[in-house]
Amino acid sequence: MNLKKSKALMEKAVSVIPGGVNSPVRAYGAVGGTPPFIERGFGPYLEDVDGNRYIDYVLSWGPLILGHSHPEVIEAVIEAIRKGTSFGAPTEREIRLADKIIEIIPSVEMVRLVNSGTEATMSAIRLARAYTGRDKIVKFAGCYHGHGDSFLIEAGSGSLTLSTPSSPGVPKGVAGDTLVANYNDLDSVKTLFDKYPEHIAAVIVEPVAGNMGCVPPVKGFLEGLRSLTRANNALLIFDEVMTGFRVSPGGAQEKFGITPDLTTLGKVIGGGLPIGAYGGKKELMSMIAPAGKVYQAGTLSGNPVAVAAGLKTLELIGADGFYDRLFQWTEKLVQGIRDIAGRAGVQLQVNQAGSMFSFYFSENPVYGFDDVMQADKQKYTELFHKLLDRGVYFPPSAYESLFTSGSHDEECLSKTLEAFEDSLK
Ligand SMILES: *Cc1c(COP(=O)(O)O)cnc(C)c1O
Predict the structure, then answer these.
(1) Does ligand 1 have an atom closer than 6 angstroms to the CB of 144?
(2) Alpha-carbon distances of 354 from 61, 245, 402, rounded to whole Å
(3) 367, 208 in Cβ contact below 8 A?
(4) Known active-site residue 278
(5) pLDDT number for residue 288
(6) What are the structural domains, with CATH classification, of the chain?
(7) How many contiguous H segments (helices) and E segments (strands) does the chain have?
(8) Ligand 1 pocket test: which of 140, 144, 150 has the largest number of ligand atoms within 8 Å of its C-beta?
């Protein structure tokens, strides 16, 4: 594959942008090679500056559930932009987006818009701490909640109850307030509640984990979190920045019938523009300034262009049959991948939830972070490069979910499976 222009651009980029990119995974550090610089996206396709075309399964890491540059979303954006790009004052469309989110996400009665998923989770734990008067939070190994200090924490070696920063620059004091449990392991959460009774403000979880590949919850896990948090007067926060609108129209909470206290959203609700949101019961959300005392603000929050893109996206995915078609298409792809691996005698675990999926080169089913770590990363890397050469764009890391969109069609399906079969040889 010719990546001449991309190579030249990367050489230039690294001298002015850290690592040449504005978000680490884009640099291809995990898989090696030069990332294609993108010229444009249309439907399920990406086209790079050297004219290579790819079927895209990254979709901007989740947001583009309708595919790239959907004509109606673009139209809504242009219409909004013509009237101005930002006002720092209230607009009617923000109410419409809030209404729509409240209508779709079962537990949300009131919602605040922010600019990214990171802001949403940071704000949600501030609110949880304010409400409970407690400082500690529980997160799960392998779950990602953006790059806020409180989340860049990993379990200390040898002990479930001692945490350490996973990035330099995160204060030890902050690490002390984040406890790390194991995904799909309720006992690990119980242990923390036993050790720190009345100190834990909230448990935050990706209700389907999507940032260690795709790892659905085992039966009883989310139910258990709900009852444990309730019994300990702690809040349950569902980080649905990825799962919102991807595993079910109303998010994982609808799919599994669990009501969290707070929900964070992002990605799909911006239709490809920067946005995030957090919401929940009125009683809780009324504590946010200026209705209440918990401070949280944003110069560009509720940005009219992002809101227009998000609103149009939610409207389009609300159409009859959208999800049936999207999920059926995804299942066909996933089943096709399983069949090919089976025929090739390759041990492949394929996890799927709605329009998210991922696969692991492993003999064992993948239920949590330790299982993910045991999968063969090198095999994924080889497959990734072979697929890229054949015009199929998978995430440049073994630990990411893949996404599908309403624009992926029969041609994408057959081409992807053909490339997959070829690449597995
Ligand atoms: C992507 C993601 C975030 C962070 O969102 P940004 O918009 O990148 O800040 C938070 N939580 C989850 C579950 C995510 O997938």
Answers:
(1) yes
(2) 15, 9, 11
(3) no
(4) no
(5) 98
(6) 4-69+321-424 (3.90.1150.10), 71-317 (3.40.640.10)
(7) 14, 16
(8) 144
pTM above 0.90, yes or no: yes
Tell me, using a 6 A CB cutoff, whether residue 115 lines ligand 1.
Answer: no
Residue 297: count of CB within 10 angstroms of its CB: 11
d(CA 74, CA 65): 14
> Residue 51 burial (CB < 10 Å; 0-12/13-18/19+)?
exposed
Instruction: Work out the pLDDT band at 161, boundaries 50, 70, 90.
Output: low
For residues 337 and 263, give the distance between their C-alpha atoms in angstroms, rounded to a whole number. 33
- Closest among 370, 418, 374, 384 to 142, alpha carbons compared: 370
Which residue of the set 136, 255, 267, 312 is catalytic?
267
Rounded Cα gap, residues 214 and 357, in angstroms: 5
Kind plus residue range of the DSSP H or E element containing 75: helix 71-82
55: tokens are: 């079927």
Q: Where are the alpha helices (DSSP H) in 232-351?
A: 251-256, 282-285, 304-317, 322-344
352 lines ligand 1 (CB under 6 A): no
Per-residue pLDDT reduced to its tens digit, 196-247: 999 999 999 999 999 999 999 999 999 999 999 999 999 999 999 999 999 9
Q: Within 13 Å and on the Cβ side, how many CA atoms surround 87?
A: 15
What is the rounded CA–CA span in Å between residue 311 and residue 275?
11
User: What is each CA distance from 156 to 152, 164, 205, 243, 381, in whole angstroms?
Assistant: 12, 5, 19, 28, 28
CA neighbours within 13 Å on the CB side: how many for 363?
Answer: 0
Instruction: Indicate the pLDDT class of residue 158, thresholds 50, 70 and 90.
Output: low
Is residue 211 in contact with ligand 1, taking CB distance under 6 Å? yes
The stretch 258-263 carries a mean pLDDT of 98
144 is catalytic: yes
Residue 70 neighbours by CB distance under 10 Å: 23
Characterize 377-415 residue by residue with b for buried, 16 or more Cβ atoms within 10 angstroms of its Cβ, and e for exposed.
Answer: bebbbebbbbbbebbbbbbbbbbbbbbbbbbbeeebbeb
Alpha-carbon span 182 to 108, nearest angstrom: 27
Q: Give the Cα separation of 114 and 298 in Å (integer).
A: 7
Going by C-alpha positions, the residue among 296, 259, 307, 301 that lies closest to residue 281 is 259
Say which of 56, 239, 261, 371 is annotated catalytic: 239
Looking at residue 156, its pLDDT comes to: 77
Strand partners, 140: 181
